[in-house]
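Hey team,

Filing this mostly as a record. A colleague (T.K.) asked me to run one chain through the structure pipeline before their review meeting, and I want the input and output archived in the tracker in case anyone asks later how it was produced. No errors, nothing strange. Just documentation.

Input sequence:
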Amino acid sequence: MPKQLANGVWLNVIKTSQFKTISMTVDFLEPGQVTALSKRILLAQLLETSSAQFPTQTALASKLSMMYGANYGVNVFRYGLVSGLRFSSTIINDHFIGGQSLLKEMVDFLRTVIYEPLTENQGFEPVTFKRQQQNLVAYLRSLNDDKQYYAEQQLSELYFEEQPFFCYQFVR
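Output structure:
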């Protein structure tokens, strides 16, 4: 059952003992805008690969490894007219690691990567930003080689001619 923690902030806990993992998702939502799509995808890549406390992908992967191989990812999604930035993580259930609790550690990790990005001089760290920007451009260029994606894109453009927000598939 959802519980409102603050204005616009909701917590939804689904308690069950049938799974070996615990999954957590943090969504940031806003009305969808085509002009913000590339920025949002780039932001997802930056926040997925580094933070102030974990400045490299290796440091971030090492932290996840220390949490018994926890998973973490950031992606962009669309739900109707709303677009979102989703932080998702999965940790092993405490029962399988001798009662040690990883839940607080994962919540702290998520707080760190969300609210303490790798920055320098009021912006993202330039080397990491440039690398992720180049990766995104290369990825977007490669989509033309994916014939199924290209066909879906062309169909969307025809069908949603008057609604450009629906023409773009969220590819990350």
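Quick notes for T.K.: The chain has a mean pLDDT of 86. The CA atoms of residues 5 and 11 lie 7 Å apart.
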